[in-house]
Amino acid sequence: MLPRHHGLFPTAGSELLPLLDNFGVRTVVLSGVSLNLALPHTAGDITQAGFNLVVPRDAVGGTPAEYGEQVLANTIALLGRITTVDALVTEWSGRRGAQSA
């Protein structure tokens, strides 16, 4: 757990991405608000640093909702994979089962 740095972008000026890289993380799941500004900037930082990006569409939000959908389709989709929370849980559950077999 890292202390929260105040500001719009959690990756800017923080040690988060280098630490994730040092831990061997290759994929970052991004959730939260806001698709209006913070998430596109953070998504760009994540992909620029060489990580794979996954964004569950039902775990993010923007205002108005129609604009949030446009950001997902026209910006976030260019940077990473858009999915849903349920699809991600199903994917992770399948991997867990395959690892224990």
Automatic annotation (TrEMBL):
Quote the InterPro entries the UniProt record gives: Isochorismatase-like_dom (IPR000868), Isochorismatase-like_sf (IPR036380)
Protein name as it appears in the record: Isochorismatase family protein
Residues annotated as domain Isochorismatase-like: 12-86
SUPFAM superfamilies xrefs:
Isochorismatase-like hydrolases
What Gene3D superfamilies would the database entry show?
Isochorismatase-like
Using the record for this protein, list the coiled-coil segments as residue ranges, or answer none: none
